[in-house]
Design brief:
Blueprint: H1 6-14, H2 19-28, H3 30-35, E1 41-46, H4 48-55, H5 66-75, E2 82-87, H6 111-121, E3 127-131, H7 134-137, E4 141-142, H8 144-151, E5 157-165, E6 178-186, H9 192-197, E7 203-207, E8 216-218, E9 224-228, E10 235-239, E11 245-250, E12 255-259, E13 265-270, E14 276-278, E15 286-291, H10 294-300, E16 309-314, H11 328-334, E17 340-343, H12 345-357, E18 371-375, H13 381-394, E19 400-405, H14 411-424, E20 429-434, E21 442-445
Helix pairs in contact: 5-6, 6-8, 13-14
Length: 448
């Protein structure tokens, strides 16, 4: 290392994924110590093993405090543009019963702690991520947002996790384009401060943000949004004229309003929505829809003539399955030009029950379909085969069909299904696989 050009050494040190290694390098030689101050990013993560050692009576005296290591790394850095400090996800499994004190050594959104280092490095800072230790932060309200907005005028990406955040004193951050708030208790029940103080956001991720009542996202430059909402908010509204990608997961909002005319990629997961208002989505091509009330949601959805790729599944589909009313005909009435259709196990089961009660109606729209991926739940092999044959008869342009079976399915029934399908329509390209809850699909044969 001593013979390498200094810029190359700095580049190597900058690629270290854990800045704990950077701290060790400073002890290895004077040249490494000097060059380590030139790195432009600090990435420090408290692991579960470090946390356990810091709590054990036998080892805690030999463990350097986490905040002290971070301060040492930051204070001597000359020009930082990226900082990540946090606790490992494995610390989420620690319960309140396992903590017998009121320590703040991992309370990373502590205003006093952040004040020690942020004003010294904020000049060139472009990315900042603070992932707190929930057990220490959940009962301590932090005003760190106010400090960040006062110091970091050129910050472009901000990520805050596992904290209770006040919005008092929050100033506009006009250069911020990316904001992630994850498992945050936020004192902005309508998101008015977020809209006013972050007007240039292009990417917004709100995951498990609590404290919301009637939240409205109103951002003119937003292009991508992921929003996972609890069951507390009564209404959800998104007004974003330039939004192109949206992933929205909610429970049972009384009102769901979307004014997103340029949306092209949409993933909606909602148990039920009593009032679902969506402006015409003329650019929407890819839709993933999950709901406990698919029939009701489809009835409120605007015509989706532009949609080419569609994924549909039913939530809580094992409950009262016989009372569900979802059918493929209704799907194609709303989305007549779909070319690729992916049916989850819930959607397939509901559609098969609907078919069992009456034949599959003929639809011209179904002739546009060229590919189907279906996750099967086989209750009666003869009914399942009849349903598949009916789909094949109606979808005359279908060229690819992939069927995935649950591993608990009877092997003889699976064999009968495979042989029956391939014999009925040998010109179709068949694929077979296995689906399992919480796991990725596994393909066992392709192109039969």
């Amino acid at each position: 290392m001593e013979d390498l050009p200094p810029p190359l050494v700095v580049d190597i040190l900058s690629r270290l994924t854990d800045s704990t290694d950077l701290a060790r390098c400073r002890l290895a030689s004077k040249s490494l110590n000097s060059l380590s101050h030139e790195v432009r990013s600090v990435n420090l993560l408290c692991t579960l093993s470090r946390y356990i050692k810091s709590r054990s009576p036998e080892t805690k005296a030999h463990v350097t405090p986490f905040k002290a290591i971070f301060n040492n790394l930051v204070f001597k850095a000359r020009c930082l543009d990226s900082i990540f400090i946090g606790v490992d996800k494995s610390l989420r499994d620690i319960s309140f019963d396992d903590v017998d004190d009121e320590s703040d050594d991992l309370y990373l959104s502590d205003l006093g702690f952040v004040k020690e280092w942020l004003p010294k490095v904020c000049g060139e800072l472009r990315k900042l991520s603070i992932s707190d230790f929930w057990i220490q932060s959940c009962w301590r309200k932090s005003e760190v947002l106010s400090l960040i907005s006062s110091c970091c005028n050129d910050l472009m990406e901000l990520e805050l996790k596992n904290a209770w955040l006040s919005i008092d004193g929050l100033n506009p951050m006009t250069r911020l384009t990316n904001l992630t708030l994850e498992f945050i208790r936020l004192e902005d029940e309508d998101l008015n401060k977020v809209n006013d103080c972050f007007p240039s956001l292009q990417v917004l991720n709100l995951v498990g943000v609590g404290g919301l009542k009637d939240p409205k996202i109103h951002l003119l430059h937003l292009k991508s949004c992921m929003w996972t909402v609890s069951n507390a908010p009564l209404s959800l509204t998104i007004i974003a004229p330039n939004l192109m990608k949206l992933r929205l997961k909610c429970i049972m909002p009384k009102s769901l309003v979307l004014d997103t005319p340029l949306l092209s990629d949409f993933h909606l997961s909602v148990e039920e929505a009593y009032d679902f208002r969506v402006r015409e989505l003329c650019n929407l091509e890819n839709l993933q829809l999950e709901s406990s009330s698919l029939h009701s949601i489809l009835g409120m959805f605007p015509s989706g003539k532009s949609i080419k790729m569609l994924t549909v599944d039913s939530l809580k589909w094992t409950e009262a399955l016989e009372t569900r009313k979802f059918c493929l005909e209704a799907l194609f009435d709303v989305f007549p030009n779909v070319m690729s259709l992916n049916l989850g196990p819930g959607a397939w089961s509901e559609a098969e029950i609907c078919f069992r009660k009456g034949c599959l109606a003929d639809r011209n729209a179904m002739k546009e379909l060229t590919e189907i991926v279906a996750h099967l739940v086989v209750y009666d092999i003869e009914v399942t085969l009849s349903f598949i044959y009916s789909i094949l008869d109606k979808c005359t342009n279908l060229s690819d069909m992939a069927l995935l079976l649950h591993p608990k399915e009877d092997s003889r029934a699976a064999s009968s299904l495979i042989s029956g399908c391939t014999a009925y329509r040998p010109r179709v390209k068949w694929r077979w696989g296995i689906w399992k809850e919480g796991s990725k699909d596994t393909w066992v044969s392709v192109g039969i």
